[in-house]
Amino acid sequence: MSPTKNKLNKKSKMPFNINRKSILGVLSLVYQEIIDSFLTKTKIKKPKELEVLELVKKKAIKNNPNSILKIIDDYAYKSTFLMNIGDQKGEILDKAIKDSRATNILELGVYLGYSTIRILSNMMDNSKLTSIEANEKFAQIAKEHIEISGLSKNHILKIGKSSDLIPSLEEQYDFVFIDHWKDLYLKDLQLLEEFGLLKQGAWVFADNVVLFNLEDYLDYVRSSPDFKSEFIPTMREYSKSHPDGVEISKYKL
Ligand SMILES: C[S@@+](CC[C@H](N)C(=O)[O-])C[C@H]1O[C@@H](n2cnc3c(N)ncnc32)[C@H](O)[C@@H]1O
Which residues make beta-bridge pairs with 235? Predict the structure, then answer.
């Protein structure tokens, strides 16, 4: 897929209809989460994340990352929503990783390792990825998925909260993928800047900027003289009707 790129004004006010439509997108997710959590609590089914791991263990082809991504995408389309970047926006991420030719990549928010596997599949052989995930259970599932994919060689998974771990990072990054809790995007970007962790020319790729209406983050990257920012409109993961978008901001170009 070749995404349509739209340069937006520096000011981040989203058109009203996009905000309104994104509310439906968020509500549909909340509804699916409530149903799933009820079924899990009443022991009618296992947590969806464990169901996915079981399917991957049973059906994935070892050392074949695409077979794992397909199993996860099929589950999210046919069973229950999963908060991965998904196949459509995933292709935008794949292209950004390739185009950036990044050698040292940081990922905030791993969940089941879906985006991690996409990044590892598309980065150059000599590149390295460090991922941060706060939830230990999700991190363990991601680790198993990444091992099955055969891509764990150039990957470091750190378990803990981004705000605790970012100050302890010692290298500079030339690509940061931000996809953890939405109220932390701006804080953590500023933390990365404060600790001098962004290389000159670094790409910062932020997911879900429309779905969750991340105006404070967008205002910041679009008005800061240190970033050149570009918006790519798309649909929410696993949806054909709920608008979303990603923001790619380049640091001190
Ligand atoms: C949207 S999911 C990540 C999806 C993943 N990037 C993908 O596309 O496959 C968000 C993840 O961020 C994690 N998270 C939330 N707050 C965090 C924090 N402060 N530090 C690290 N991880 C966090 C959550 O536990 C969750 O697994």
Answer: 243
